[in-house]
Design a protein that fits this description.
6 strands; 12 helices; Rossmann fold; Histone, subunit A; alpha/beta; 301 residues; 2 domains
Length: 301
């Protein structure tokens, strides 16, 4: 049985993925799935650079505004919902086009990734929470050293998750090794590249525009209460930088600068990840005709 054809448009934040996804959808009868882990949250519009209704140009979009911002969202949920959206679009006779997103989320949805549901052990979790990042790292080094190849010592959340998985049975690296890491769809990866200096300029302009559109008020409305600072939604770039501002330890201008720095760093990580992890065909964002030609050849192959 032939695999469903899916286009994934990737590249650094600010590279023009949204515009290309709309153009491809119009030319190739496609519908768009957001691959962004933050745009799923309702009311979080400005800080996530969520596409506006008039910008959609009538193209149906999936996985936007599907989750209350007070509820956590994870890669396992994204995998399920993204695959459901792909099937829905395919059944309509349309071409599924995934736009942007975190590399891990996209690969989990498009490849043969399976997730082990670890048993909840609150006592073990509480014990882990008392340890420093270094202590957690050393513990994971003893239990599942291979998993450390893809987890940084300071990524406390992922280290704890790997420890919980190992505690509940098979360890994280063993689960991953048992998988083939092969796509379950016929995926065409389209990557948008952009000159480094130009990208920095576009990122800075985008962040400035977010503040002009009311980012400060959006964050205040959603997250000014300390009880919200532990929400998964607050951990995204464009939101987490406001914590010292709420504590009156930083100015609004310094928050803006932090968002710019973190966005640039994220864009660099995105480029590195996609270049190493998946077979991307890279184009400049203004090469729409070349992109369409590439897609048409792939569709007819």
């Amino acid at each position: 049985m032939d695999k469903i054809k899916v286009i994934a448009i990737v590249g650094p934040t600010g590279s023009g993925k949204t515009k290309i996804s709309i153009e491809l959808s119009k030319k190739l009868d496609g519908e768009i799935i957001s691959g962004d882990s933050m745009q799923v949250y309702r009311k979080m519009d400005i800080g996530t650079a969520k596409i506006k209704e008039d910008e959609k140009e009538g193209i149906p979009h999936y996985l936007l505004d599907i989750q209350e911002y007070s509820r956590p969202y994870n890669v396992c949920e994204f995998q399920k919902k993204c695959r459901e959206a792909i099937e829905t679009i395919h059944q309509k006779g349309k071409l599924p086009i995934i736009c942007g997103g975190t590399g891990l989320y996209l690969k989990a949805a498009l490849y043969d990734y399976t997730f082990q549901e670890e048993q909840k052990d609150e006592a073990y979790r509480q014990e882990l929470e008392t340890k420093t990042n270094e202590e957690l790292y050393q513990l994971l080094k003893e239990i599942d050293p291979k998993s450390l190849d893809s987890i940084h010592v300071n990524n406390r959340k992922r280290v704890i998750r790997a420890l919980e998985i190992a505690h509940s049975g098979k360890n994280k690296s063993a689960i991953e090794e048992a998988q083939n890491h092969e796509p379950i769809y016929d995926v065409l990866w389209i990557g948008l590249d952009i000159d480094r200096e130009k990208l920095v300029e576009k990122i800075d302009e985008r962040v400035d525009q977010m503040f002009e559109e009311g980012l400060e008020q959006e964050v205040v409305d959603l997250f000014s209460s300390p009880r919200t600072w532990e929400y998964t939604s607050f951990q995204g770039i464009g939101y987490k930088e406001f914590k010292p501002y709420f504590l009156k330890e930083a100015s609004l201008e310094s928050v803006k600068e932090k968002i710019k720095i973190h966005t640039r760093q994220y864009a660099k990580r995105q480029m590195t990840w996609f270049s190493r992890q998946v077979p991307v065909h890279w184009f400049a964002s203004d090469q729409i005709e070349k992109i369409v030609e590439k897609v048409r050849c792939w569709l007819n192959a």
